[in-house]
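Working notes for the structural subgroup meeting. M.R. asked for a predicted model of this chain before we commit to crystallization trials. I am recording the input and output together here so anyone reviewing the notebook later can reproduce the run.

Input as submitted:
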Amino acid sequence: RLGLFGSLVRNSGNVSADSATLQGGKIVFRSSQRTEISGTASATGVRGGDIRILGKQVALTDSANVDASGVNGGGTVLVGGDAHGANPAVQNAQQTFVSANTRIKADALQNGAGGKVVVWADGATQFGGNISARGGAVSGNGGWVEVSGKQWLGYAGLVNTTAANGVVGTLLLDPTDIT
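Returned structure, recorded in token form:
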């Protein structure tokens, strides 16, 4: 487990909570103001881990790489909040930005379902990255992805929730206006 907290949290290096034999670990980046990730955050394992990138303003810039994949099931990645912004235990961002070169993964690599990825803001979300929450190559369904801005969403990215031997997963786009 790893947690980085402060009024400004910035990571441009490599942060790992990987496990070769267990569920991936948990990584939390949380600020009271701005959280900016331009490096790599990895919490992989037999089952995918849990990565949370939270703050009033959240930005995944440059070639940020966030990976919560697992051999037997994808993990969870929360960027700017949880599903529909409705989990009071998870801080919601006002603005969330994901650059075009950013990669977010919560894949099941061999068996099991793809994971859960949420990119959220109570205000505006600008998304240009690539999200993968695929089902396992041998068995398993695709994962669940939400990319939403409660007030505004700019969506120019790609999402993959396919499953080689299962049911395709879900992509939810849920703002008032979509650009």
